[in-house]
Amino acid sequence: xxKQTKLTRRSFIALSVLGAGGMCLLSxxxxxxxxxxxxxxxxxxxxxxxxxxxxxxxxxxxxxxDAGVTNFIDMQLTGPYTxxxxxYRKGLMAIQETCKTKFQKRFEELPFxxxxxxxxxxEAGKMEGKLxxxxxxxxxxxxxxxxxxxxxxxxxxxGGNKNNVSYKMMRLDYPVIIGQNRYNN
Amino acid sequence: xxxxxVNAIVVGAGAGGGIVAKxxxxxxxxxxxxxxxxxxxxxxxxTDELKSQRTTPLGNAYGPDDSRYKRVIANxxxxxxxxxxxxxxxxxxxxxxxxxxxxxxxxxxxxxxxDFKLKxxxxxxxxxxxxxxxxxxxxxxxxYEKAEWEIGVSGDATQNPFGxxxxxxxxxxxxSHNKEAQLLYDAAKRLxxxxxxxxxxxxxxxxxxxxxxxxxRTCCGYACPxxxxxxxxxxxxxxxxxxxxxxxxxxSVVSEILVNEQGKITGxxxxxxxxxKQTQTADLVVVSCSATETARLLLNSKSKFFPNGIGNENDxxxxxxxxxAYTGAYGxxxxxxxxxxxxxxxxxxxxxxxxxxxxxxxxxxxxEFIRMPxxxxxIRPPGSASWGKEHKAFQRLNFKRVAQAVGPYQxxxxxxxxxxxxPVVKDFWGIPVVRLSGSRHEKDVEGCRLMSEKAELxxxxxxxxxxxxxxxxxxxxxxxxxxxxxxxxxxDPKTSVTDKFGRIHAVPNLFVADGSLNVxxxxxxxxxxxxxxxxxxxxxxxxxxSKGNRFK
Lengths: 185, 552
Hints:
CATH topology of the largest domain in chain B: FAD/NAD(P)-binding domain
Distance between the termini of chain B: 27 Å
Oligomer: heterodimer
Distance between the termini of chain A: 71 Å
Mean pLDDT of chain B: 97
Order of helices and strands of chain A: HHHHHHH
CATH superfamily of the largest domain in chain B: FAD/NAD(P)-binding domain
Largest interface: A-B, 39 and 37 residues
Low-confidence stretches of chain A: 1-28
Number of helices of chain A: 7
Largest sheet of chain A: none
Radius of gyration of chain B: 22 Å
Radius of gyration of chain A: 21 Å
Helix content of chain A: 40-55%
Number of strands of chain A: 0
Strand content of chain A: under 5%
Shape of chain A: globular
Order of helices and strands of chain B: EHEEEHHHHEHEEEEHEEEHHEEEHEEH
Shape of chain B: globular
Number of domains of chain B: 2
Structural class of chain A: mainly alpha
């Protein structure tokens, strides 16, 4: 590689385009679009947004999607939850494939109530077919539920619970002020 | 370069080991205190509920870590699976200086007189290895007193008529009750029970050079930001180090107890902070790694003299694993009962600890430590949604209106609940890991039901408009942070692992000093009893040493 000592804005853009195009040529354009996520793809993130919104729906307070729960899950999947990567990939795929066959739509395109029913069927272990073998429906549902609740109700340092939204909702003051003596007598 | 020979090795700087190290080093013995973890501080994870020592989905705040440790669970049908420290089945205790005493809820219970003679009190129970301790409560009383004064306890023993007799009050006054505890206190009085403030290893006033508690909501499962919680890491271990006789060797994982050609214990092998295998020799060794890890170390120390592990001639090492079946009830109140005055638990009744018709033992009932937002997502009346709109609304409407009364039910010891070492799975250092199997005694659930019923009535009297039981004692492996019983004390070497001073039968210079020694685990959190046993074992060794006994 030759060193670039000076890089003008114009040449940078030119290089970027060339780079992207080059990648496309090499991989025959099968690469997914560039993703801002760590593990999940852009398409998967749209699905995950819908799923976490089902677990914690928007009401007077932000729901899972807007509270950054998808970001929480993506972050953990390259950290402590690396061991769940495969289940996520398989589970997300199974959801989309099932929706395509049954409804000719993506999960996130279904009406909210339909999405809820879909997840209730997963929770009850009622999904059929090869995609859901070995109890993937229940297993993946439990992961989605637990991880969503963690992302929404856990510390914002892990990428969810944006602006302490769940703490505010539950009327808990954060951050805790150390050194404050709160006893009455 | 080899390590200098010392008088004593203590393996594990927790509730038991920290105290033994202090007793020995103050008495003039040279000591190396091994700890597999390092120093823990509040700032490591501060109030992070997802990485605390109580809720651990993203890992244990103070160790052990998921990358180097694992265990194996054996099901009743013989199938096995591997668990990580952040998963519930692991039955974890913290891996840091002070271990559980850094992040515990800090309840400071003395066991009752009956707890030391369960067999005499209740008679033999089918399917149980129930036995009396080789000594009485009165024998341990001075050690309890030492633990209370040297580590530091706040409380008022005069308010608990069922407490065992004592010679001295607690060194610090009790804590005031928070709102829910006061409601429960008043309700207990109306019911004719005997409520009292929970004794706590926590400073209610400045004590031991450390400040008073600031009543954080995050306490149980977290280190203290102002050092008001009393553990071995901020009391006896600093004293041990200050004597100049004790070297604390952190991030060092002891793998085996060494036996020489004459069958004598000569020291340990360990992996140092750079994972190099090292040897440390000593005149005597004290193992205090918790009921699971102490058993593992003894079982992993195989030689021609001890083909089944040290102390295991009769297959008793690792047996009788006990924790506590936590049982109680929840109640929803019309008005808010939460006032954010931590750590939450402050009122107890001991009215159902022993003397319950048809039930062995019983336990103390307390209001619970503050449940953090994520933990609260699992607290719902039976049949409630576990996700969705309704679940979220419950979280918002009821977080400050739910109280729990709960307690540790004394489990019935049984031989098949056990710790072994797995024949295949090894940890990061290549040491065979703990393998857990067996389950609680089938009769535990009867006692749990009784306690849960009492807890529910108590909550109702306090004003709960809707209550439900959280019943403990089901099948499944026991253990948890209250793990105990795997190297039980006794006078008969055929039915116990150590003598009444924690010395392994038939091995003159090897001791155990942790919850492994407990013959049974009381209807209480066991930390203060483990500390008292630390003073007993450490005190015995020190006093014998001063008389010239070199345990040869």
